[in-house]
Specification:
This protein is of the alpha+beta class. Helices cover about 25% and strands about 35% of the residues.
């Protein structure tokens, strides 16, 4: 793994006020610690930090941190940011030994388009985006690629199916990394056509018309208008 050089200076003053002054001067307050390194308050130039980060495309980087003329191999364990501006406000550097294995989490990069997605309309579902490993610092992979191009619908890749050179995988072996799910089929209920609805409406109108005519005849009888037979008088 590539190492990136970074300069740092010891901090004599600590606390919120001192940290604020450090940031106003264009620096980032930080602390360096490790199994064999006592905690030390330091600060790094924001400009130098940005330049160092641009030198690597990996999210896991070993920095050669120079503090007071002494070289320290470190990893960034935590980088705090302002919740509004997202600017870096504090960094934790973890000092490591290049001769001792360390536990570290590395991101997973899925490559290719599954055959089940292209030919069967499947859906690629990612269950894990990073994996925990143990290895020597020099063996930390800059990128960990997992090829998914041969997966069909229903196929999956588990932790037990992968191998990382010179590293021990610590994540549970039965965990799923990725799976190709079958496509979702949505059934649409059948609806009546406009013609059928029109015919039903017409039949209803005819029925209502007939009932109306019968009602009208009944109404005439109720008015008491005599028929021709009723006009005869008895002698």
């Amino acid at each position: 793994m590539k190492e990136v050089s970074l300069q740092a200076s010891p901090r004599t003053a600590t606390g919120k006020g001192a940290a604020r002054q450090s940031r106003m001067a264009g620096n980032i307050p930080a602390v360096m610690y490790g199994p064999e390194t006592a905690p030390q308050a330091i600060e790094v130039s924001l400009k130098d930090l940005r330049a160092a980060i641009k030198e690597t495309s990996s999210t896991v980087t070993i920095f050669d941190l120079q503090v007071g003329g002494k070289s320290n191999k470190v990893l960034i364990r935590d980088m705090q940011r302002d919740p509004i501006t997202l600017s870096v406000t504090h960094i934790d550097f973890h000092a490591i030994s290049m001769n001792k294995p360390i536990n570290i989490t590395v991101p997973i990069n899925f490559t290719g388009i599954p055959e089940g997605v292209k030919s069967e309309g499947g859906i690629l579902q990612t269950a894990m985006r990073e994996i925990e490993i143990a290895c020597l610092p020099k063996d930390i992979p800059e990128t960990f690629d997992v090829d998914v191009s041969e997966l069909m619908v229903g196929d999956s890749i588990h932790v037990r199916d992968i191998d990382i050179p010179n590293a021990t995988i610590l994540s549970e072996e039965q965990r799923t990394l990725v799976i190709v799910q079958p496509p979702t089929i949505v059934s649409i209920p059948e609806t009546e056509t406009e013609g059928e609805e029109g015919e039903e409406g017409l039949e209803g109108a005819e029925g209502e018309g007939a009932e109306g005519a019968e009602g009208a005849e009944g109404a005439e009888g109720a008015d008491g208008k005599p028929s021709s037979g009723d006009d005869k008088k008895e002698d």
